[in-house]
Amino acid sequence: MKIFISSDIEGVSGITSWDATRYGGKGYEEACRQMSLETAAACRAALKKGCEVVVKDGHEDAMNIDHNLLPEGVELIRGWMNNPMSMLGGLDESFDGVIYIGYHSGAWTANSPLKHTCEDYVYNWFKINDKYASEFTINSQVADQLGVPSLLISGDEGACRDAAAEYPGIATVAAKKGIGNATWNRHPGDVIAEIEKAVEEVLSKPLPSPRKLEDSYTMTLCYKEFQKAAAAEWFPGVRRIDDFTVSYTAKTPMELSRCRYFVG
Predict the structure, then answer these.
(1) Do both 87 and 43 map to the same domain?
(2) Distance between CA atoms of 196 and 242, rounded to whole angstroms?
(3) pLDDT at 84 (0 to 100)
(4) Which residue, 171, 203, 235, sits at the end of a domain?
(5) Each residue of 232-264: pLDDT tens digit?
(6) What percent of the chain has pLDDT over 70?
(7) Is the terminal CB of the chain with fewer CB neighbours within 10 Å at N or C?
(8) C-alpha distances in angstroms, 241 versus 71, 132, 229, 245, 247?
């Protein structure tokens, strides 16, 4: 089997402030280490099951994971490929499953002080087919199009709950829960151990099929700045709804990602 792991930082245990997610910020090095260790746990489990493992660093400039903290044999994709695949850059039809580590709640929720969807400074919220969308929503739909099922997500409690509701059967590991501007965290070691155990359990059973694609996909983007909406309207097919909001309809999730790549 061949497993793809997409990793983010805002959903790992202990991370509470935006400062800790950015270079030079208080707690950033600690956050990167925990992101690396939680990812490593998923890698170990997959390697135990004889899988080939590829990891995509999916946070900020995509150069946060310490490759030396991952098990030998694991390949790591650092930086951005400058294509619409974004946090799934490198995924293709040859993979048997996707695992999401350190994911966070979407922009519309109150589940985490670090909640956002894609660039937190650009969007107020996303919708796909009239339902609010998280980064997991966007990425799992692209994986579906490639015929690759989503197997497990770890992150804040809200992200796990929302993912389970929209992707029945996906395994979840909650590292923390948000309360106002605070996070209530499980011990980092406990989270690492549960990720490894959960991934091993998932890979010990027959893998599920990806979801069937919808007939079409309509993406609605609400920007923080009206200038972004005005610029997005120039992309072919984008429709202006109001000063801050645009929509775009496509046949596939990848087409949506291609549009957002240019209007983000």
Answers:
(1) yes
(2) 46
(3) 96
(4) 203
(5) 999 999 999 999 999 999 999 999 999 999 998
(6) 100
(7) N
(8) 48, 17, 9, 5, 7
Classify residue 75: in a domain, yes or no: yes
Q: Which candidate, 166, 185, 177, 206, places its Cα nearest to that of 113? A: 177
Q: What are the tens digits of pLDDT across the range 163-218?
A: 999 999 999 999 999 999 999 999 999 999 999 999 999 999 999 999 999 999 99
Please identify which residue in the block is written with the tokens 């400062």. Answer: 19
Q: Are residues 142 and 18 in the same domain?
A: yes
Domain closes at, from 181, 203, 225? 203
- Residue 249 shares a structural domain with residue 141: no
Within a domain: residue 255?
yes
Task: Say if 19 falls within a structural domain.
Answer: yes
Please report the pLDDT score of residue 137 as a whole number.
Answer: 98
Instruction: Give the single-character DSSP code of 206.
Output: P
Of residues 24, 27, 23, 25, the one with CA closest to residue 15: 27
Q: Quick one: 184 and 237 in the same domain? A: no
Length of the chain: 264
Segment 78-87 shows an average pLDDT of 96
pLDDT category of residue 81 using cuts at 50, 70 and 90: very high
Whether the Cβ atoms of residue 15 and residue 9 lie closer than 8 Å to each other: yes
What CATH number is attached to the domain comprising 165?
3.40.50.10780
**pLDDT at residue 54, rounded to an integer:** 99
User: In total, how many domains does the chain have?
Assistant: 2
For 220-245, b/e burial (b = at least 16 CB within 10 A) is: bbbbeeeebbeebeeeeebeeeeebb
Instruction: Tell me the whole-structure pTM to 2 decimals.
Output: 0.97
Q: Give the span between the Cα atoms of 219 and 226, in whole angstroms.
A: 17
| Arithmetic mean of pLDDT, 39-46 | 98
Q: 243 and 185 in one domain?
A: no
- Residues of the domain holding 176: 2-107+134-203
